[in-house]
Specification:
The complex is a heterodimer of chains A (329) and B (465). Chain A is an alpha/beta fold and 329 residues long. Helices cover 43% and strands 20% of the residues of chain A. In chain B, helix 5 links the parallel strand 1 and strand 2 (129-131). The chains are: A alpha/beta (329), B mainly alpha (465).
C-alpha cells in the first residue's frame, strides 16, 4: 500500500505562469530540449545539402548523341543505368552461386520517342523489370541517370511520378476497397479535380467493363478484372507516358486483347508507352521499336523492321543471345 | 526522395535541371519538337491540390478502411471494452463469492465450558453456540479439520472465577500484572481454508476481545465513534486511481496501437499495396504523417474502449476488497474513488494531452518498427520488447510512492507519460511537467515521422524480401 504525497491541486495556477516561474532546473530542461531541436534542424539542413552535392556529382548526364527518330522527339533517355543487388546467403544457396552481388542492369542506355510503343524484350531475369522500376522511381540507380519527360529520375522523382502511369503485377490494389473508391482516391493523390475524375472514371470504367463491378470490393474481382482495374487506376491522371511491366501476364486472350488494343489506342492518341515483355509475338505485333536486353545490357535496339530484316524477332533474339552468351542455355 | 529532401538550392545550382526544366508545349512550340528531351505537358499539377491535400486523402482513406470494415470495428473498438467489462465483472463476482459467507448460512459453533458472564454477550451478538462436552473435543476438532464443523471455543472451567479473582483489587497499572499470575487461556479452534470457519473465528475473536477490553480497560483504540481516517476524499480517490490507472491506461493504449499499426504498415508492405502509393506523386512525408495521425485516432478510440470497460467494472472488482477487510481500498473507492467530479477541468485537459501525445508516440514507434518488418507477423514479433518496456513503466508507477519531481525525468518518453498520469491522478500535476512530457513525446513522434518518411523512400526497406 503506497501512500500518495499530496500537494494543493494545481488547477488554480496558470500553466503559462508556471512555465515562466519554474525553477532553474525546469528552465534548463526547456533550454536543453530547445537546443536539441535546433541541432536536429541544422543537421537536417546540412545532410540535405551534402546529399544534394553528392547527387550532383554522381548523376550528371553526359551530352551524347542519340539516335533520332525522324519525326518524334525523345521522351525517355537513359544513360548508363546500372543497378546491382546484394544476394543474401539464402539466395546464394538457392542459386548455387558464390557471388555476393548480382548485377541486374549494367550500364543500360536507350531512348524512347514520344508517341511510340517501346518494348524492352528479354528473357526472365534479364533486368527488364528492374529497369522499369528505376524509370518509375521506385528504386534508385546505383549509377547513371535517366531523363523521363525531361525530369531526372534520381533528382526529381516526384516530378517523374506525376508524369508517368506505372503498372506492374507487383502493384496491388487494396482488397478492401472498391474500384470506384480507389479511382477517386488515386485521382486525389494525382491532383485530378473531382469533376474531371468523375468523367474519366465513367469513360474508362465503361471502356473496360468495370462499371458493373465498380462497387464490388477488389478482393471479390476476378484476376482479369483486377488487372483491368489496376490499369485504369494507373492512368487516372491521363499521363503522357505509360510504363507497363508485362502487360499481358496472367491474362486470358480476350482480356489481353482488350489491354493491348487499348495500348495501341493510347499510342494513336499521342501517348508514349514503354513496356517489357518476354513474348516476342506481342512485341512484333504491338511495338514500334524494341530494345533487346540480355544480362542487363542492351544487346540491340531499333524499330522492329530494322532489327528483323525479314526474319522473325525470335530468330533475331536467338542469334543475339548466342553472340552474347556463346550458346543458348 | 520526399520533398523534405528536395533542396531548392540543389535545383538552382544544377545545370541539368536548368536546361531541361522548361516545358515545351507541343502547340506553341511545334517547330522545336526535337530537343534533348521532350517534356510533354502534364495534364494535372501532379501535386495533390484539388482542394484536398495528399495528407488529408491518406487520413481519410485509413479511417475509411477502418470504420467501414465492420469486423475491424467490432474486434478493435467494441470487443476490448466489452470483454474487459465482462471478464472483470465476472472475476469481481467470483472473488466476492469466495470471500463472503452467505447470510443464510448457519455456522456450526461449539463451545466447552461457556462462562456465564459471556452468555448474554454471545446472545446479543446473535451467535448460536452449541455447548459441547469435554469428551467430544477430539471429535469436533476432527470435524473442523474435515470442514464439517466451523469452530470450537474451549474455555477453562473456572474462567469467570479466575478472571474475577485475578482482577479483584489489582492495580491495572501494575507492570507485574501479566507475569505475576497465570492468566486464563481461551482456545479457539478453526479451519483457515474454510471461509465460513474463518468468518466464525473472527466474530468470536472480536467478541472476546471486546469482552477483554470491558473487564480490563487499560486503554481503548478508536472507540469514540468518530472518523479517524484523516485522508481527504481527494487523497483516497487519488490513492486508488494512481496505483491502477496509469498502468492500465498505458497497456490499453498500447494494445490499441498494436491492433492497427502493424496491419496498416507491415500489412500494406506484405500485400504490395504500398508500392501502388509509392508511384504516385504523393509525398513520402504526407504518407508517413497521414498514417501516424489516422492510426493514432483509431488507437485512441480503441484504448478508450478498453478504458471504459475497466472504469465500469472497477467498482465490482474493488467491492471485493471491502467485503474482505471492511476498510481500506474498497472503502476509499466506495466513498468517493470514482467520483469523477473530484478532478478539475484542467486535470482532464492535462490528462487528455498526455494520453494524446502518448498514443502518437506509441504509434510512431510501432509504425517505424512495422516498416522494418516484411510481414505483419514479423512486425508483431518485433514490437514485443516495446511492450515489455510499456509494462515496466506502468508497473513502476504502481509501486512508486508519488510522481517524479525532477523535471528532467519528464524528458524520458513513456516514463514521462506514466509519471504525468500519476501526478494528475494524485492532484499534484505541475503544468510544466505535463508540458515537457507532451513536448518530449511529440518530438519523438516527429522524429518517428521523419524516420518513417526516410523508410518509405528507401527501396531496401520497402522492397527487400
Amino acid at each position: 500500500m503506497n501512500p500518495v504525497k499530496v500537494g494543493p491541486p494545481d488547477s488554480s495556477q496558470a500553466p503559462f505562469k508556471a512555465l515562466i516561474a519554474g525553477n532553474r532546473q525546469s528552465r534548463a530542461c526547456l533550454l536543453l530540449s530547445g537546443i536539441v531541436l535546433v541541432a536536429i534542424l541544422l543537421l537536417r539542413r546540412y545532410c540535405t545539402f551534402r546529399r544534394g552535392t553528392m547527387t550532383l556529382y554522381v548523376h550528371r548526364i553526359r551530352k551524347v548523341s542519340m539516335p533520332r527518330s525522324s519525326s518524334h522527339p525523345i521522351i525517355i533517355q537513359t544513360q548508363d543505368l546500372s543497378k546491382s543487388f546484394k544476394l543474401s546467403a539464402r539466395q546464394q544457396r538457392l542459386e548455387h552461386s558464390t557471388e555476393h552481388v548480382r548485377i541486374a542492369v549494367d550500364k543500360l542506355s536507350f531512348v524512347a520517342f514520344q508517341g511510340e510503343i517501346f518494348g524492352l524484350l528479354g528473357p526472365n531475369g534479364a533486368g527488364k523489370t528492374t529497369t522499369l522500376r528505376m524509370l518509375a522511381t521506385l528504386i534508385r540507380p546505383d549509377e547513371g541517370d535517366a531523363l523521363v519527360a525531361g525530369r531526372s529520375i534520381s533528382r526529381q522523382p516526384e516530378a517523374v511520378r506525376a508524369t508517368i502511369g506505372f503498372l506492374t503485377s507487383e502493384l496491388k490494389l487494396e482488397d478492401f476497397f472498391t474500384p470506384s473508391y480507389l479511382f477517386d482516391f488515386f485521382a486525389t493523390l494525382h491532383g485530378v479535380p473531382p469533376d474531371i475524375a468523375a468523367i474519366r472514371k465513367a469513360e474508362l470504367f465503361k471502356r473496360f467493363g468495370i462499371d458493373e463491378f465498380a462497387e464490388v470490393k477488389v478482393a471479390n474481382l476476378s484476376t482479369g478484372m483486377k488487372q483491368k482495374a489496376s490499369l485504369v487506376i494507373s492512368i487516372v491522371h491521363d499521363p503522357p507516358l505509360i510504363i507497363f511491366d508485362e502487360p499481358t501476364n496472367g491474362l486470358d486472350v480476350l482480356t489481353a486483347k482488350v489491354v493491348t488494343d487499348y495500348l495501341a489506342e493510347l499510342r494513336d492518341a499521342g501517348k508514349t508507352i514503354v513496356l517489357s515483355t518476354h513474348i516476342f509475338s506481342l512485341a512484333e505485333r504491338l511495338c514500334d521499336r524494341v530494345g533487346v536486353i540480355i544480362d542487363g545490357r542492351m544487346a540491340a535496339q531499333g524499330t522492329v523492321p530494322e532489327l528483323t530484316k525479314g526474319r522473325s524477332l525470335e530468330q533475331v533474339f536467338f542469334d543475339l543471345y548466342v553472340s552474347v552468351k556463346g550458346k543458348v542455355a | 526522395m520526399g520533398s523534405l529532401l528536395d533542396d531548392p538550392a540543389d535545383k538552382a545550382t544544377n545545370p541539368i535541371s536548368d536546361s531541361t526544366n522548361r516545358v515545351i508545349s507541343p502547340i506553341n512550340d511545334s517547330a522545336d519538337k526535337v530537343g534533348p528531351c521532350y517534356e510533354p505537358p502534364v495534364p494535372f499539377s501532379g501535386s495533390p491540390g484539388g482542394g484536398k491535400s495528399g495528407l488529408l486523402a491518406i487520413i481519410t482513406k485509413e479511417l475509411r478502411r477502418f470504420f467501414t470494415d465492420r469486423r475491424m470495428v467490432i474486434t478493435t473498438l467494441l470487443m476490448p471494452g466489452l470483454l474487459i467489462y465482462v471478464v472483470y465483472s465476472f472475476i469481481g463476482a467470483a472473488l466476492a463469492n469466495q470471500f463472503t459467507v452467505p447470510t443464510s448460512y448457519e455456522p456450526k459453533l461449539y463451545v466447552l465450558n461457556l462462562p456465564d458472564s459471556l452468555r448474554s454477550l454471545v446472545h446479543e451478538a446473535g451467535l448460536d453456540l452449541i455447548e459441547a462436552r469435554s469428551e467430544q473435543v477430539a471429535e469436533i476438532k476432527q470435524d473442523i479439520a474435515s470442514k464439517t464443523d466451523d469452530l470450537l471455543a474451549v474455555f477453562p472451567a473456572d474462567f469467570d472465577e479466575v478472571v474475577s479473582r485475578e482482577l479483584n483489587g489489582l492495580n491495572p497499572q501494575d507492570p507485574a500484572l501479566s507475569t505475576a499470575f497465570e492468566l486464563p487461556q481461551v482456545e479457539l479452534f478453526f479451519n483457515s481454508t474454510r471461509v465460513e470457519s474463518t468468518a466464525a473465528y473472527s466474530s468470536v475473536y472480536s467478541l472476546l476481545d471486546s469482552y477483554k477490553e470491558a473487564v480490563l480497560p487499560l486503554f481503548t483504540v478508536n472507540a469514540a465513534g468518530q472518523s479517524y481516517d484523516l485522508a481527504s476524499q481527494q487523497d483516497k480517490a487519488g490513492f486508488v486511481v494512481t496505483s491502477f490507472f496509469p498502468m492500465l491506461l498505458m497497456i490499453f493504449l498500447y494494445s490499441g496501437c498494436i491492433a492497427v499499426a502493424p496491419e496498416s504498415i507491415a500489412g500494406e508492405k506484405e500485400r504490395g499495396t504500398i508500392a501502388t502509393l509509392l508511384v504516385t506523386p504523393l509525398k513520402r512525408w504526407e504518407m508517413a504523417l497521414g498514417k501516424v495521425i489516422s492510426l493514432g485516432m483509431i488507437a485512441l478510440l480503441s484504448g478508450l474502449s478498453s478504458f471504459l470497460g475497466v472504469m465500469l467494472s472497477l467498482p465490482r472488482i474493488l467491492a471485493v476488497g471491502e467485503g474482505a477487510s471492511g476498510e481500506g481500498t474498497g472503502d476509499a473507492l466506495n466513498g468517493s474513488g470514482l467520483d469523477v467530479g473530484l478532478y478539475s477541468a484542467s486535470d482532464y485537459l492535462m490528462l487528455l494531452a498526455v494520453i494524446l501525445s502518448t498514443v502518437l508516440l506509441l504509434i510512431g514507434l510501432i509504425s517505424v518498427i512495422s516498416a522494418f518488418a516484411r510481414t505483419v507477423k514479423e512486425a508483431n514479433t518485433m514490437v514485443m520488447p516495446l511492450m515489455i518496456l510499456v509494462m515496466l513503466v506502468g508497473v513502476m508507477a504502481m509501486f512508486s510512492q508519488s510522481a517524479q519531481e525532477q523535471a528532467l525525468y519528464y524528458l524520458v518518453p513513456g516514463y514521462n507519460s506514466v509519471q504525468s498520469m500519476v501526478a494528475i491522478f494524485s492532484f499534484t500535476a505541475q503544468p510544466l511537467h505535463v508540458t515537457i512530457t507532451v513536448g518530449a513525446n511529440l518530438l519523438i513522434t516527429a522524429l518517428c515521422v521523419v524516420m518513417l518518411t526516410r523508410m518509405f523512400s528507401s527501396e531496401k526497406i520497402m522492397f527487400n524480401r
